Request: fold
Amino acid sequence: MQAAEQPPADATPLKRQLRLAERRKKLTSMALVLPVAVLLFVAFLWPIGALLKRGIDNREVMDGLPLTTSALKGWKADAGTPGEPVFDALAADLDAGRGTPKLAAAAKRLNVEQSGLRSLVMKTASGLQAPAEPADTAPAGDGAAGAASAVTPDAARPAARDRILAIDERWGQSEVWQAIASNASPYTPRYLLAALDREQAADGSLQRVESDQAVFVDVFARTFWMSGIVTLVCLLLGFPLAYVLATLPARISNVLMIFVLLPFWTSVLVRVAAWIVLLQGGGLVNQALMLSGVISEPLQLVFNRTGVYIAMIHILLPFMVLPLYSVMKGIPPVYMRAALSMGCKPFAAFWKVYAPQCMPGVLAGGLLTFILGMGYYITPALLGSPGEQMVSYFIAFFTNETLNWSMAAALSSVLLAATLVLYVFYARFNRPRQQRGAR
Reply:
């Protein structure tokens, strides 16, 4: 019999060929996605991670006073003033850090804990600087006396505790040492608690700050309230506009869509400046109302919450219209005609048939508008009074004015957490609707 034909020696089984082809396809896809992933990490994830870390970072005092913070471990405020080793460590740290940025940063950080500590640290560092001594302090021809006098200044120098207390008696107060000891950890919840108007008591419990210092909870409440009002008004104005655009013929709706997109082509700063001109006492809005007889004297429409609402609604309205329009455009019109043909009244057909199908657009537009409204800074700063400033104003203040980046990072972290909570609620509320739509 003729032997069965054998496959070539270099032949590869089909299963292995498919596996290799699939692997090459995955590697090619990963190579195409890798630049985008790197860009996403560098431009988005890494800055957010650095921001969150900055809100709890507390290394300034440890870097500026390493020996002192180490010597204070285990010390309690009720034990009174620390012992001589702690003063020795403080003197060594101040001598080593005099004139360096690390000591300046540590002094500034301590001043946040207790007013006046920055000047105390810098004053003590300058006071500990010993004056230069002559090279030869011994009289000529007296070797023994000269050797003794060369040793005497160091031996007779006062202890570090006496020297530091002689410079400033505040070093004898336990509150000063408590401020240093409380910053002996590389991380602290102080800034996050301060962003929520809370602080940590001496016993470790949480308590509300004094009423004259409790500002940020009200600021967050104002931010959420104003963003909610703007979102609601944008929904009331954008829903009928999106409905008209979705039901009109394409030739007309495309022309009208240009007017919806027109604000995107104009700078936010230019639009805010234009609203200042329009809404001021002698502006076109007040003049038109007075000429029509609606009012007898100009209304205060600028530098208050009314002006902020008007400008924010004008800027954010397209972000509500576009998601609604995209959803409404995909709803077949035969649904409404079928409901009407079965005897359903027009409003009932709209409310029971059409409106539920628009909910994904309402949720997406509402979420987008609300999140963008929470981060507004220029519009309230230019059109509002101090009572209309939102969280972003204080973030910019701590970043640019006081250079307290940790506090700015803490406020940003709370705002980011609120945004993530809103997104989680949106995802949980919208998922059942998507599943019902799929079925």
In short: The mean pLDDT is 84. Residues 14-54 form the longest helix (41 residues). The CA atoms of residues 27 and 40 lie 19 Å apart.
